[in-house]
Design brief:
Layout lengths: L4 E4 L2 E4 L10 H4 L3 E9 L2 E2 L2 H14 L6 H12 L7 E8 L17 E8 L7 E7 L14 H11 L5 E6 L2 E5 L3 E5 L5 E4 L9 H10 L7 E3 L12 E5 L3 E9 L10 H20 L2
Parallel strand pairs: 7-8, 7-14, 11-12
Antiparallel strand pairs: 1-2, 1-6, 3-4, 3-5, 5-6, 8-9, 10-11, 10-13, 13-14
Length: about 280
Amino acid sequence: MTNIPAIYQGELKTLDQIRVSPLSRAYTFSDSIYEVIPYFSGKPLCFNEHVDRMIQSANFIGLSVNIENAIDDMKELASTLTNQDGYVYYQISRGVDMVRSHLYQDDLEIERFGYAMPFSFPSSAVSAMLCEDERWGKCNIKSTSLLGNVLVLNQAKSLGCQEVVMHKGGFMTEAGASNVFYFDSDGSVRTSSLSENILPGITREILIKALKDTPYCVKEGSCAISDFHDSPCMWLTSSTKGMLPLTNLIGTEYKLEENHEGYKDVTELFNSAMQLHLAASG
């Protein structure tokens, strides 16, 4: 971990040199937000969209952020990924308390932290476990409060799975670290509509726009988990996964239909959209 570029309060170091107070509100209360921006051969995917979502998350929790400072930090980190695949993780907390207190001081200095990591993005299908969504109710905020995700993902890991698909009352919300799409028995592409239970994924939006005005136009809405039994293909989208199909979903009868033609077509449309976004990034 010694050579990983990292930044704290605007100062570029290496990750092992960063020192954070135990009274950081990120540590004591998860009073912080974050973004993960993927880079392909040194080019960011949807940088502005990630920044816009960070601003939205900050506004949701009343966090006053100098976004220009944050952008400068992220670009400085990204400069270390020249011609490499990887990602920039960037986190903003409300600051460091003098004494741990639920009531934060109005004059706290915003705390900024991030790092850049070379990364080989996965391309193989993964397995998942179906589970009840027991996370806090405002998952549309990209908060560092991820204990609910951590617990169910590690439960799934013990069963040989790499992801979970969560639901509330029999209706899908999202995966542990991804959005979920699937073909229903009628051949329509489905995903859950956005709500406070669902993060507005950047890659999710790329796919939805790529499929607009095609035979695979996405139907957003309430998605019953009973649909999964008859689905020929389910897949995940996220900044670090791109599009990954699910081989199986423990708790359902779903099993991936190998070489599904619809999924091949959707993948081609998605990959074309990704290339356009990367070309637009310069």
